[in-house]
Design a protein that fits this description.
By secondary structure, the protein is of the alpha+beta class. It has a single domain, classed as Endonuclease/exonuclease/phosphatase (Deoxyribonuclease I, Chain A, 4-Layer Sandwich). Helix content is 23%, strand content 27%. The protein contains 7 helices and 14 strands. The protein has helices spanning 11-16, 21-24, 45-48, 117-139, 173-184, 190-194, 211-214; strands spanning 2-7, 30-34, 54-58, 69-73, 79-82, 95-100, 103-109, 143-149, 187-189, 204-205, 217-218, 221-226, 233-238, 250-254. The strands form 3 sheets. The protein has a 6-stranded mixed beta sheet with strand order 3-4-2-1-14-13. Strands 5-6-7-8-12-9 form a 6-stranded mixed beta sheet. It has a two-stranded antiparallel sheet with strand order 10-11. The radius of gyration is 17 Å and the shape is globular. The model has no long low-confidence stretch (mean pLDDT 94).
């Protein structure tokens, strides 16, 4: 099974730039996109009905043009879950979970924390609610696969300028501690597990400063798997050469 995750920074803009064709031509079994910035009623038929895929979208209800995630899957799931069950975690269009026999796949666009304390509190609450969500399935015997834009660089190796960002959201100790907790709970950051000392591997670059040209980036996009799947991972690849967004696609290949 090949799964791709990409924060597209606006799916309709990606379509206009004709940068989305990379997704449909890659033979992926699962396509997880974040920041669609659209409601399905704004999508073209081309985006809604890609041949061979079932498509699901969780869009923001608080305002249009904000957030949003989508999943294209070749195999129709038994169940689709939109958002999280806790109050306050459904209106921003941040999470899709598809349930199959024996495993689940989650696609998330996690809050970025912003510059306000209240935003960081919301982000941390979302993190905890999400971890409880996947742990319930894991404890019921499901394999868990989750990916997307987690909006956190876990360790100094995961961003180009850790010292300059140590007080900025996305690299705060309390945010990074949550990733520690995820790993302690039995989930594997697949890229880092396969590449424990690899440097300069990033998935996001600031567009205003042309940081991509200098590879001054952050690794904030992930695929995680429960440790029950560790021996089924075949490969993981980052594709910084694929343009169209301020993020690049990441691909997980595993036997399932």
């Amino acid at each position: 099974m090949k799964l791709v995750s990409w924060n597209v920074n606006g799916i309709r803009a990606l379509e206009r730039k004709q940068a989305d064709s990379w997704l449909w031509q890659g033979g992926f079994d699962v396509i997880a996109i974040q920041e669609t910035k659209s409601h399905p009623d704004q999508f073209s038929e081309y985006l809604l009905k890609q041949a061979g895929y079932e498509a699901y979208f969780d869009s923001a209800t608080i305002r249009k043009g904000y957030s949003g995630v989508g999943l294209y899957v070749k195999q129709a799931p038994k169940e689709v879950i939109y958002g999280l069950p806790q109050a306050g975690f459904t209106e921003q269009g941040r999470l899709l979970t598809v349930v199959y026999d024996g495993y689940i796949i989650c696609n998330g666009y996690f809050p970025n924390g912003g510059s306000k304390t209240s935003n960081l509190e919301y982000k941390l609450e979302f993190y905890e609610a999400f971890l409880a969500h996947i742990n319930r399935y894991r404890d019921d015997g499901y394999h868990v696969i989750f990916g997307g834009d987690l909006n956190v660089a876990h360790n100094p190796i995961d961003l180009a300028r850790p010292e300059a960002n140590k007080k900025n959201t996305g690299f705060l100790p309390i945010e990074r501690a949550w990733v520690d907790k995820v790993i302690e709970d039995g989930y594997i950051d697949v890229f880092r597990d396969l590449n424990p000392i690899k440097k300069d591997a990033y998935t996001y670059w600031d567009m205003k400063s042309r940081a991509r040209d200098r590879n001054v980036g952050w690794r904030i996009d992930y695929w995680f798997v429960s440790d029950s799947l560790k021996d089924r991972v075949n490969a993981f690849n980052i594709y910084p050469e694929v343009l169209g967004s301020d993020h690049c696609p990441i691909v997980l290949d595993l036997n399932l």
